[in-house]
Amino acid sequence: MLALLMRSNLPAVVAAESVGLIGKVEGDTYLSATGEYKIIAPVLRELGGTITDTENVVTFSDSYNTHISIACFPQDASQRWEYQTTTRREYLLYFFSQFVLADFQQRFPGAAIQSARFLPDLHDGALLTYALLPGGSFFEDKSKIMATPGGAPVQAKRGSLLFVRRGFIYILSVELAERATQRSTYQMTTEQEDTLLSVRLTELVKRLIFSNALPSKT
Questions:
Q1: Pick from 108, 102, 127: nearest CA to 1
Q2: What is the fold, at CATH topology level, of the domain defined by 3-210?
Q3: Fewest C-beta in 10 Å: which of 17, 80, 158, 180?
Q4: Handedness of CA 137, 111, 176, 22 (dihedral sign)
């Protein structure tokens, strides 16, 4: 199922105002196909903003510095068992390693987790992770790399925030665009990168407006 999260990087996108979404766009607000949340779209048409989605994943991108995905997967019986028989921290680490990181590694050989931090006060416990993805930047022009002698793709960095709500596991993911867009002058330290991604992810999760409906029976 997490392969859908990775496929959100593919270039087939639709304009925010166009038909074709599985979820809905009403004004400037995206309503998820699951009905579990809505969010004011964090991209603008004026900056090339686009929205593409699947049944469980929406991606917001622009041509400037935004590449955000929000995944919302229902926990099946095995996931509910894992969740109920361990701590929330251990469950989220397990889920990230077994599904999210595994997908990163399949698409971008050499991808690795750089660090992780548990946030006990965010949504009853959330996991913040930072991963390095060789050649995994949405913002890098691959054709220019191929045309440059000795050119090598940038090592992208992506922050992810995982938490569980109402039987759904959420994975919010943000690329640190500056690694590609400021490539020749980029000088951020690892600590500065982590702080910036943390701020962007926590701001993003605060923008989610959750459904108050009763959870569906399975």
A1: 102
A2: Protein Transport Mog1p; Chain A (3.40.1000)
A3: 17
A4: positive
